[in-house]
Specification:
Distance between the termini of chain A: 58 Å
Number of domains of chain A: 1
Strand content of chain B: 15-25%
Structural class of chain B: alpha/beta
Number of domains of chain B: 4
Largest interface: B-D, 66 and 66 residues
Bound molecules: thiamine diphosphate, iron/sulfur cluster, magnesium ion
Radius of gyration of chain B: 26 Å
Oligomer: heterotetramer
Number of helices of chain A: 9
Strand order of the largest sheet of chain B: 6-5-4-1-3-2-14-7
Strand order of the largest sheet of chain A: 2-1-3-4-6-5-8-7
CATH class of chain A: Alpha Beta
Order of helices and strands of chain A: HEEHEHHEHEHEHEHEH
Chain lengths: 284, 589, 284, 589
């Protein structure tokens, strides 16, 4: 059994007060509560403040390129479907640079988990607009304020029929921990968007701002109803629903690929050079 | 004897089937075969051709002259009539082509009608054409029978018989109507051993050779090299390898993923490799552009990965279905930062097989990206070759797996070592964590910012490994005169045409080919002082299928050597034998 | 005034029977009916069968890279907002390679038009699965059939709040021409997904298959209702709605960028080197 | 005199403000100034520093020794105490640093308390520190007053006065408590002209120099070069240029788009250029990896585009905020296929300004992509320089616009011409259609597949243009002895440190610097036979901020020349003057 101490990593280089610190805490507790040990999980992260996450805990880690967490994470799972895989990305990482991978990961529905640390800004590169930045926010790169409509990750995920779609808030630790656990336990692609204040660069969507708006969806919300989920997803502004917004049961990709379905993970299957010789016969 | 049959027509007319069957037939019959294809970037219409050369001695290039032109449309006659050899003939069906030609060397064979008459099915017209070829060449239909039986095994004897009937009718027609046919075809002589075998009824009379294209050779080499994961996005001329691997994935422990784009493809290949399986991606030059960042990631995280790049004429989309060798320097220098890489540029299917296997071995052993550079020409050309030997491909699992790993007290993914090679472990196989990072990192794989670690890591990753990898690289191949006055240098897919040109010229001149197929790390002169050969020669020529003589430039950067002459070709087509001879003939070789 | 002849280009290299031929015809007629001349439109296309489109008509043309139509098209519009810009892409082009640009073009809402020739397959590269290929379809690259859930472009566009979302079918010329005109006349980003049989590589979604399923949405459908639009978008299978699925009024990006809003296009604004000298002053 | 002040502390403590104000102050006061920065990839905490060197003669590098170390935290003292010069002092506030040091050269100045006392606001503590510096150096506060007045113009006189009061209190405290201060500072002498000006009250006494960093210089050069469209995705160390351009976009006819990724960024730049405006994109080496395919598109469609690449230590993410010169060969060879490109690698802000302008001119004139290669070091270092002259940047509109275009009977975007340069027209400006294609195309811009057109297009696009562009490239700069025995060669951002080292060594030796800032097409020897200079020298050294001596390799590939010695540095930090002198001093320069 693991304990919190098992997950202690480097000292975080995040700003004091950063929501990432809360996300990290919730994660470690979720891992302990799930009874998982560090080597049982591989964290794949990108580049950004969120991308540093795995260095501040202890797990197998592939900290890759900005925007490219999901292809790496999915391939790890394909190569070893006994490994739990967590992809950790920033909002810029996942919805900006990595938008195309996000779309396709939802289609593939491998059994992996995605946390997006959504601070609605590019933190590490010092405050440019991200795809989720509110319209009107002025930054060094957006002197006239953001002129695009923000991307709504929850609505997008519902439209893509992601099999688990949830939103958390770093300021609500209990709910967040629970959502993390549900996401990690979900069979299929589990997507958790985590609202997270950036104290250095986002002066609009502050801790206070989120706290006033976030509300957990109640039992009246049926996460199995895709249209209702979509409607709920459109709420973002005065009120922001948190919790599991949409969930469906679908076969996972690893259950559908004959080479690995109900078989040992690829990485454990023996390599039989003899088999290859037969392939040459066809060419005589 | 040395004949060329060219089948020309529109995309969708089935000329590829005719060509492929003839090639296989000739190979089975004991001839040496060389084929090449030329097609447009469209699915129907346009103008394509398939050229099959066969001879009773080794051949390795296509020729300009055509002995039999099978014209499936009018345009083919117009485009290629001028290529006919003195004994050459055009064969066509005036019904399909909608034209009746005069002239002794144009033979109208009613393929369609014969198909209807003999087999009751006009779709057998291509089989009639194949039969007609055999008839014209005076060959029997035994081998064709064998081939059809294999091909239609699942469809049953009836289909085979129908086809055979069509072929026979075609052959008969040809024999009866081809007053002009002057082709003399002898099944090449058998070796003593083969005769014994033949006598014992073990095999048919002909020597056993394989017929293989470059695409299949790369795929087979990958399988033999232990490839378990292939991720790619389709792009000519690399799609063939993806399809080949996909077809294998039902039979072997192999996953093939079509990625959403090339960026995902290479990142997937890297992810799978990190997780513990040998992996590969493949693309063309334009798709590789999107993999450049991922390449750098493989370099930094020291993740083994094999990258197949099929070159095609560029820039940008260029000529999607044609050939060029213009991505060498690009691939060599691709990606930000400095890290080692391996580059193989096979010259024929045999090399493609072994070097793909070797690429996997070196990638794994040194934890570096390894490239196989090909092009449309190598991808599509078929060669006859002696049996490939999978045992010649080294397969050794260099990774730390469960047992060994668990025994270690400590594990650090990027530990400093004398060789620069750190232990590569399978994540999850023990309690040891496998951590790596695209940022500069310490031995544990965690991110750092200090100067000292940086310097040690660059030394480990690059400066220590590079010379060790170089030691594994074979020198270029010298073919021809051992002390040549003239040396023709090439790399990659020009191998065959240079070899045959050198063989021709070697009859009268002191000449040799120096062919580079293992290109990077650039081969040293320790095992074979090829530079000395070049320096001793009076005349040195570098032949490339590009406009800027990239290999010559690389040669100068690496060795200082400067060629006497540079031969280039950049029209999207490969060198034909006569073309190269012309280029070389202008000068006193 | 233009006539059909004004728009005659190279002879199409498409297969006989290909749906692209019908799309081309509808387009030329739409142009004539709108009274547009060739030089008044710039077509930006990618690579694929659809990408060849502009060569088979006559307009200003930028035939760029596979997947990259939208960035080029958007920039042309930013540089010259008096130019009409039409982006033409394949389903692989736009939803596969170019997915990330599609997401962001919808956010930007520039006044450009996008036609996606959606044959649910990669035509030019000989029949691999595209993001819209039906589950189960067997191809050379998908020997076990497609194992991912297809992307629903209409649902995705509604989730992204694209300001004009429509579906046409190459076999319904009248409706298609009308949709093309509405798209070209719409103020903002207009997205038209055009179902198109590929006779060579898609043996499932044939002309017949589409014809049996496609039905035009009736007047009871309110394209202004985003949730209703989403619900309608989810229909794809036994019945396939065509027509304008979703439409909204939003400011376009070119109306929001101060440098060009209500001003001459950038390309016509004079370059005043004198202005630059002033910038140097700050550095003394 | 020649002093260095280093301000060290954590990210977020405001050390950049102190450094920037001091640099400007010294520049205004007539000194020559050189600054450089060192910071981690984090927003708060860690360890950063800002180093300001100023002197009464030209300087162009940072030194190892520090005269005043302003320590904003304990760590700074620990890290840098050893760097102090014999007269050196550490200045710190024991309240902030939470430590009281013994030792004569450690001066505790209660910045925070003084700020509270003098201005009633602790956030003025950094202004107190600036004041203290002035006090220690014996400089008056007049220039600071001027500067504060400008800076806080919008906030009003009160803020200025508060700041001034804080500074004055800091200065007073320093003067009163700095027994150790041995700094003698003389405002550099004035030229006759300046004295006249000064007498006429036109300006303050000091000579007028600009203080400029590499980032601003590139941005200003782009504006002067007519840039109207800038699309980019943020990435250190290129984000500064994006921010600079964004800030200008309110004042000029300029659109700045933050793209969704680098692929979109370059495709947007190409799209805007096609539509008729001069355009640019910028990124770092890793982001450029994603632009490689777009680069090839620019090459094929002959669309002018300027690409700024800020290098940083790699592979992969590497050291995001540090410096390296390891992307030269990568940028030179990036992209599939063969087409011309221009590469500028400025060595200082002055060159950055003019060469960015020149990049625009060449890109437009020859319809090719043009690069400006920089790095974190050049981006951040500030230099004093003489007034830049926008008139020296050629601006000529080579495009066909409405009037001229409409007059033409025919227009073909890719028409064959003697120079290979085809007419580039603005789409929509007339009835003529502007058609271009990433596939191989004909003169009209429509796609083709034939060999003949291909050959002519490669000749037009590449072979004809390349030599013409080469003629536009200036030779490398020879600085120092005109017939040197020793030549130190460098490119890009090592300019300053090599120059100063050569100046030092030149006092006793026959030595010169040969600096390359216009790198590709590689300069010919027609205008200046620099190869002869190298060949005549006894000892030639190539100094690079990378591990594999990329420029030396390029030199060999282009000219065959091989250096006597290669100096490299790849720890992510720039060369300091003493470091380079050490490297050179080992050998008999
Ligand atoms: C290809 C590439 N482009 C750009 C960057 C620079 N970069 C690093 S992190 C980042 C954005 C960070 O924003 P986000 O993903 O929201 O993460 P956050 O820092 O806010 O957690 C960018 C643009 C990069 N590392 N790689
Ligand atoms: C970067 C890149 N990757 C791959 C290709 C190869 N390629 C050309 S078209 C195409 C897909 C075509 O499918 P789609 O976009 O649906 O167009 P269609 O041919 O079906 O109209 C691909 C994969 C390419 N040209 N460039
Ligand atoms: S910049 Fe923002 S996101 Fe990054 S560490 Fe600081 S508070 Fe957190
Ligand atoms: S392959 Fe399909 S999409 Fe392409 S031209 Fe033929 S029918 Fe049309
Ligand atoms: Mg963020
Ligand atoms: Mg398609």
């Amino acid at each position: 059994m693991s304990e919190l101490e098992s997950f202690r990593g480097q000292n975080p280089a995040w700003c004091p007060g950063c929501g990432n610190l809360q996300i990290l805490r919730a994660f470690k507790m979720a891992m302990v509560e799930l009874g998982l040990e560090p080597h049982e999980l591989t964290i794949v992260s990108g580049i950004g403040q969120a991308g540093k996450f795995p260095h501040y805990t202890r797990c197998n880690t592939f900290n890759g390129l900005h925007g490219r967490t999901l292809p790496v994470a999915q391939a790890i799972r394909l190569a070893n479907h006994e490994m739990r895989v967590l992809a950790v990305a920033g909002d810029g990482d996942c919805y900006g640079e990595g938008g195309n991978h996000f779309l396709n990961a939802m289609r593939r529905n491998l059994n992996i988990t995605l946390f997006v640390h959504d601070n609605q800004v590019y933190g590490l590169t010092k405050g440019q607009a991200s795809p989720t930045t509110d319209e009107g926010m002025i930054t060094g790169a957006q002197p006239f304020g953001v002129l695009y409509e923000p991307l709504n990750p929850i609505a997008l995920a519902v439209a893509m029929d992601a099999s688990f779609v949830a939103r958390g808030f770093s300021g609500d630790q209990d709910q967040l921990r629970g959502l993390m656990q549900s996401a990690l336990e979900h069979k299929g692609f589990a997507f958790l968007d985590i609202l997270q204040p950036c104290v250095s660069y986002n002066k609009i969507n502050t801790f206070q701002w989120y706290r006033e708006r976030c509300y957990p969806v109640g039992p009246e919300h049926d996460p199995g109803d895709r249209v209702a989920a979509f409607q709920r997803a459109l709420e973002f502004g005065e009120r922001i629903p948190t919790g599991i917004i949409y969930r469906s049961e679908r076969q996972t990709l690893e259950e559908r690929i004959p080479v690995i379905a109900n078989r040992e993970p690829l990485v454990k299957q023996p390599f039989l050079p003899e088999d290859m010789a037969g392939e040459l016969q066809r060419f005589f | 004897m040395d004949y060329t049959i060219k089948i020309g027509g529109q995309a969708g007319q089935g000329l590829q089937t005719i060509g492929a069957v003839l090639a296989k037939l000739f190979a089975r019959s004991g001839f040496h075969v060389f084929t090449h294809q030329d097609y447009m970037s469209r699915i129907r219409g346009g103008h394509n051709f398939y050229q099959v050369r066969f001879a009773d001695r080794e051949i390795s290039a296509s020729r300009k002259v055509v002995d039999i032109l099978v014209a499936l449309d009018k345009n083919t006659v117009a485009e290629h009539l001028g290529e006919l050899s003195p004994v050459g003939l055009v064969v066509y069906d005036s019904e399909t082509v909608r034209e009746k030609y005069d002239g002794e060397n144009l033979l109208d064979i009613p393929f369609r009608q014969i198909a209807m008459d003999a087999a009751g099915n006009r779709i057998m017209e291509n089989t009639v054409a194949v039969g007609a070829m055999l008839g014209m060449l005076g060959m029997d239909l035994e081998t064709l029978d064998e081939l059809l039986t294999e091909t239609f095994a699942r469809k049953g004897r009836e289909v085979v018989d129908q086809n055979l009937a069509a072929a026979k009718a075609g052959a008969d027609f040809a024999r009866g109507n081809c007053g002009q046919c002057n082709f003399s075809v002898n099944i090449p002589g058998l070796t003593a051993a083969q005769e014994k075998e033949a006598a014992a009824g073990v095999s048919r009379a002909a020597p056993k050779r394989m017929l293989m294209d470059g695409t299949s050779a790369v795929g087979l080499g990958a399988l033999a090299g232990g490839c378990r994961f292939y991720a790619a996005y389709p792009m000519t001329p690399s799609t063939g390898v993806m399809n080949f691997m996909a077809a294998q994935s039902g039979r072997h422990s192999l996953i093939v993923e079509q990625a959403e784009d090339e960026i995902a493809a290479i990142n997937m290949a890297i992810g799978a490799s990190y997780a513990g399986v040998r992996s590969m991606t493949g693309t063309a030059g334009g798709g590789f552009a999107l993999m450049v960042e991922g390449l750098s990631l493989a370099g930094m995280t020291e993740t083994p990965v094999v990258i197949f790049v099929g070159q095609r004429p560029a820039p940008a989309t260029g000529f999607p279905t044609r050939t060029e060798q213009a991505d060498l320097l690009y691939i060599l220098h691709a990606a930000h930062g400095e890290f080692p890489r391996v580059i193989m540029a096979p010259g024929n299917p045999e090399q493609a097989y072994y070097l793909t296997g070797k690429a996997f071995d070196l990638a794994e052993k040194y934890q570096v990206p390894a490239f196989i550079i090909s092009d449309q020409y190598l991808a599509d050309t078929e060669w006859t070759l002696d049996a490939l030997d999978p045992a010649k491909i080294i397969y050794q699992d260099y990774r730390l797996r469960a047992g060994e790993l668990a025994k270690l007290a400590d594990y650090q993914r990027h530990a400093y070592t004398d060789t620069g090679v750190s232990p590569l472990a399978e994540p999850g196989a023990s309690h040891h964590l496998v951590v790596t990072d695209s940022d500069e990192h310490d031995e544990d794989g965690h991110l750092v910012e200090d100067a000292e670690t940086r310097v040690r890591m660059v030394e480990k990753r690059l400066l220590k490994k590079q010379p060790l990898i170089r030691d594994q690289i074979s020198p270029p191949l010298l073919h021809g005169d051992k002390k040549p006055e003239t040396v023709i240098v090439g790399w990659g897919s020009t191998y065959g045409v240079i070899k045959e040109a050198v063989d021709r010229l070697g009859e009268k001149h002191s000449i040799a080919m120096l062919h580079f197929s293992e290109i990077y790390p650039f081969p040293g002169t320790g095992k074979f002082d090829y530079l000395e050969v070049l320096r001793q020669a009076k005349f040195t020529v570098c032949v490339e299928n590009n406009a800027t003589s990239q290999f010559a430039r690389l040669m100068r950067a690496e060795t200082g050597f400067v060629f006497s002459k540079l031969v280039t070709k950049f029209d999207g087509r490969p060198y034909l034998l006569e073309e190269l001879l012309d280029e070389l003939g202008e000068h006193d070789v």
